[in-house]
Design a protein that fits this description.
The protein has 406 residues and is of the alpha+beta class. It folds into two domains: 209 residues, no CATH class; 192 residues, Glucose Permease (Domain IIA) (Distorted Sandwich). 65% of the residues lie in helices and 15% in strands. The chain contains seven helices and ten strands. Strands 1, 2, 3, 4, 5, 6, 7, 8, 9 and 10 form a ten-stranded antiparallel beta sheet that branches. β9 and β10 form a beta hairpin. α1 runs antiparallel to α2, α2 runs antiparallel to α4 and α3 packs across α4. The longest helix is centred in the middle third of the chain and has 76 residues. The relative contact order is 0.10.
């Protein structure tokens, strides 16, 4: 039992570093698979655009999204290769350790076998015991001979176990090297594709510069739509907060409660805390690839033009994609805005989420929604299948990527 415990503890100590490396590699593999999916989706959308639309601004957005995803994919390949290199080094070290142990055990076992061979005549063993000066000495000699035999058997078992471990580690090393070769080849392919996409982006940039007036007009229209959205959402949230404040004050007057708390505000606080506790773990409202990120950005072509604040993220999605609630809440407003079509605002206590660019809405004002419930279907606007999502804390927009599951 003690021997088994020792073997298990040795195996566990050896496997812990490998397990940690394997876990990180698996995570990166999952990340690469998602990025490949995003790139494929963006590629399909570009193909659709080439057949149905000649708007260079749309295509530039998609190509930029592909380039960003491709760069992330290459970075993921680099990280994977570094982890695989470390895993290969650890595995090789383990093989060297096991080989040295195997050689030592084999050498010791060879000595035991040679000693036993020289004294292989059983009569010599009996004479050795019978020649004892006392019964005690005879028993000790008999015990020694038994332990010698047992030690030979145990040594042979250790050699077999070490050989088995050695074979396992050699197979693992081969697998790691093959995986590293595959990732290295993928990285070479991705860098070549990245260059092609960079060339495509340059072509689109040249086209945009050539027809500057036409595309600047489109850009101005999009900027106006974004500014209108930002103002409308801020006004909606402000109106919701004022309404909630009035309701809370009315509740205090009607109940004579001077503590400053009502049942409704207690529920909102609980919901707010639950929402905040899930930061970084909220599900994505749609499956797609991000093409516009949160914050202030300059135009990719007219670099001296600062674009309006993007208070959320925009994703390219499959046509007819359904948008789902990221958390339990209440639908507080549904509005229609130019460029964003139907927009649904959901309250989660002091947090708000906005689902926009919807063709149809599956909820109505006042509805209670649960995590994963369908809010509406994404619309195709101007040949684009884009979904825009925002997340606010009171009157302050938050970066959704910090809140949604990685």
């Amino acid at each position: 039992m003690r021997k088994l415990a020792i073997i298990l503890s040795v195996l566990l100590c050896c496997s812990l570093p490998a397990w940690g490396q394997n876990s990180s590699i698996k995570k990166l593999e999952s990340q690469r698979a998602q990025l490949e999916k995003d790139i494929a989706l963006l590629g399909r959308k570009l193909d659709q655009n080439s057949k149905s639309s000649s708007e260079a601004l749309n295509n530039l957005t998609l190509v930029k999204g592909k380039i960003t995803a491709r760069e992330q994919l290459i970075a993921s390949c680099d990280q994977t290769l570094k982890l695989l290199k470390d895993s290969i080094a650890i595995c090789q070290g383990e093989i060297d350790r096991l080989q040295a142990r195997h050689d030592t055990l084999a050498l010791y076992y060879g000595r035991l076998v040679r000693g036993a061979y020289k004294n292989r005549d059983s009569r010599m063993w009996y004479m050795y015991i019978l020649a004892s000066e006392s019964i005690g000495q005879g028993l000790r000699r008999a015990g020694y001979l038994r332990s010698l035999s047992a030690e030979m058997s145990e040594q042979a078992l250790r050699i077999r176990e070490t050989s088995a471990q050695l074979e396992v580690e050699k197979e693992r090393l081969t697998g790691l090297k093959e995986e590293a070769d595959a990732v290295r080849a993928q990285e070479v392919r991705e860098r070549s594709r990245l260059q092609d996409e960079a060339n495509e982006m340059n072509r689109l940039v040249n086209q945009l510069n050539k027809d500057r007036k036409q595309y600047q007009k489109q850009l101005q229209e999009k900027n106006k739509q974004k500014e209108a959205l930002n103002k409308k959402i801020a006004d909606m949230i402000r109106a919701e907060q004022e309404a909630a404040k009035k309701k809370a004050n009315a509740g205090k007057k009607n109940s004579g409660n001077t503590s400053g708390k009502t049942t409704s505000t207690a529920i909102d606080t609980k919901l707010s805390n639950e929402f905040a506790a899930n930061k970084g773990r909220l599900p994505w409202p749609v499956e797609g690839a991000i093409v516009e990120r949160f914050g202030k950005h300059h135009h990719p072509v007219y670099t001296n033009v600062e674009l309006p604040q993007n208070n959320g993220v925009t994703l390219v999605v499959k046509r007819g994609c359904e948008a789902k609630a990221v958390f339990n809440g209440t639908v507080t407003q549904i509005v229609v805005l130019p460029g964003y079509n139907q927009c649904v605002l959901v309250s989660h206590g002091s947090y708000y989420t906005l689902y926009s660019k919807l063709k149809s809405v599956a909820v109505k004002v006042g509805d209670k929604v649960t995590t994963g419930q369908v809010v509406g279907t994404v619309d195709t606007i101007g040949g684009e299948d884009l979904f825009h999502f925002e997340l606010w804390k009171d009157s302050t927009p938050q970066n959704p990527e910090n809140w949604l599951r990685n």
